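Internal ticket - ligand job 245, adenosine-2'-5'-diphosphate:
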Amino acid sequence: MTTERTRQLSDGSRIPLLGLGVWQVPNGTATVDAVRWALELGYRHIDTAQGYGNEESVGQALRESGVPRDEVYITTKFFPNAKDPEAELEHSLKRLGVDQVDLYLVHWPKGGPVRACDTVTRSASVPPVVNQVQFSAVEYRRGLLEAAEKLGIALEAYSPLGTGRHLTDSRVAAIAERSGRTPAQVLIRWCVQRGLPVIPKSTRRERIAENADVFDFTLSDADMAALDALDKTGGTDRAREGKWW
Ligand code: A2P
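stdout (structure tokens):
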């Protein structure tokens, strides 16, 4: 059984496999509550972005939670419309009220030459450690995952529930029923069991709790294979870059 809750990245640091994503959660009470509940429920990884506009609320919840800063893994992202990532990072740190973040991602490649992992690793003086992409059983970008692993880059899965759409898939529901779990837990477990960091989003306390309860069961090889077969990308080596939501 995979009970490992963190993964070592290629620079030696560790990332908690489960994080709370706050994409599309408005700044203010909704984000403060979601992050505070997550921290109360044991999450130690929060994924935000300059472009989400809710870094202030993430910072507020972190301070109000009383959980020490160094116990929480915080990701934020540089929105490439701006020119200067270092200046933008300073703004993010100020909004978050922290001295540093644990992971700083380029939010979108913006059509530049960073489409493929190997292009960026060839041109970077410091190799990237994480590539966060749309990834789930239904968007099982096997080629991208294999390329990332070969380069020592951890693929991190956003929208593991397909922004909620995959939860009603009858094949996911059947596996959930067999496992005595919920569809969300099955889809999140599919990532965790592969050792992939995953950041499901919810603004509801009971769902935030449900989504974290994925470390005490194992999907059988047959169920993993059945989930793999839901892939609609054809095992692509491409990330999703255009607007799709
Ligand atoms: P809500 O925030 O109202 O809970 P993804 O992480 O793939 O982007 O999916 C997020 C979407 O899935 C949100 O709409 C969220 O709604 C919903 N969601 C998250 N967790 C659960 C869950 N355990 N059961 C049902 N829906 C969920």
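Auto-summary: Residues 141 and 234 are 8 Å apart (CA to CA). Strands lie at 6-8, 14-16, 20-21, 45-47, 73-78, 103-106, 130-134, 154-158.
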